[in-house]
Design goal:
This protein is mainly alpha-helical and 267 residues long. It has a domain of 86 residues: Tetratricopeptide repeat domain (Serine Threonine Protein Phosphatase 5, Tetratricopeptide repeat). It has 13 helices and no strands. The termini are far apart.
């Protein structure tokens, strides 16, 4: 009768364990999919506006296939997802990174436009801080100058004008406030900048009118006359035209005593 030693018994047990393990291990590892398949799945979710699931799908694509051209598009779609979710700080970061990492990519103009839109979406009323309008107009102006043939440039021009109008209204309101509180020098300084910086704004007539009033209060009749004449020449149909004409026909000394506040109809 054959008797196994302790060593032989242990060896036999080891062989049996290895054999069992080989039988339970699959022969082929399941394929995780190609970069194109991953991109198609992520885009399907994105097109359905399922941003909750699209976000990790694009993130996985970017991380698993970093050298794939689809990974570059995934970076841009991640920025868009943050934008559509109104997560503008995060969106700005992703668009900036896309622009920095892929400066020659044909989607860079779109990223710049979206950077402007991220700030534009944060605009507040003209009497509040206008930093978002200033930043947005900077990106839109860059688009207009450097990518005139981009399909986004037309929209950029429209948004640029809105931003500049908002900034103009803000500066004008400050100039009017200074004038009405009899801080004439401060009013003059603000209004001079307002008139010179926003040459294409349609309602510059109001700024010119208050600038003329401020100069009269500061006893600078020549400059007051220049501002009021500019109003009449550039905006002959302005609601301020009649009053500007009357001021031009009035001596500065007499007018200054009557101009402590704006005319009742134009406050």
């Amino acid at each position: 009768m054959f008797c196994m030693t302790r060593t032989q018994l242990m060896l036999l047990c080891l062989i049996l364990l290895l054999t069992s393990a080989c039988r339970t291990t699959p022969a082929v590892v399941k394929d995780a999919g190609t970069d194109e398949q991953a991109f198609r799945r992520a885009m399907e979710l994105y097109s359905k506006k399922n941003y909750f699931d699209a976000k990790p799908a694009f993130t996985d694509l970017r991380d698993k296939f970093p050298l794939s051209p689809y990974a570059v598009t995934a970076e841009l779609r991640l920025a868009d997802i943050h934008y559509f979710n109104e997560e503008f700080v995060e969106a700005i970061h992703f668009y900036e990174e896309f622009k920095r990492l892929h400066p020659s990519n044909p989607d860079v103009p779109y990223a710049i436009f979206q950077l402007g839109m991220c700030h534009f979406k944060q605009l507040e009323s003209f009497d509040r801080d206008q930093s978002p309008a200033e930043k947005a107009s900077g990106f839109f102006e860059y688009m207009i100058k450097h990518y005139p043939d981009s399909p986004f440039t037309g929209s950029a021009m429209g948004y640029y004008k809105i931003c500049r109008q908002r900034m103009f209204d803000h500066d004008l309101s400050i100039g009017q406030f200074y004038y009405k509180t009899k801080k004439y020098w401060a009013a003059k300084e603000r209004l001079v900048n307002t008139v010179s910086q926003y040459s294409f704004i349609s309602n510059r007539d109001e700024a010119l009118y208050y600038l003329g009033l401020a100069y009269r209060q500061l006893n600078e009749p020549d400059k007051a006359r220049e501002a009021l004449l500019s109003l009449l020449q550039e905006y002959p149909g302005s609601p301020f035209a009649t009053e500007a004409q009357a001021l031009l026909e009035t001596s500065p000394e007499k007018g200054a005593a009557e101009e402590n506040v704006a005319p009742e109809g134009n406050r």
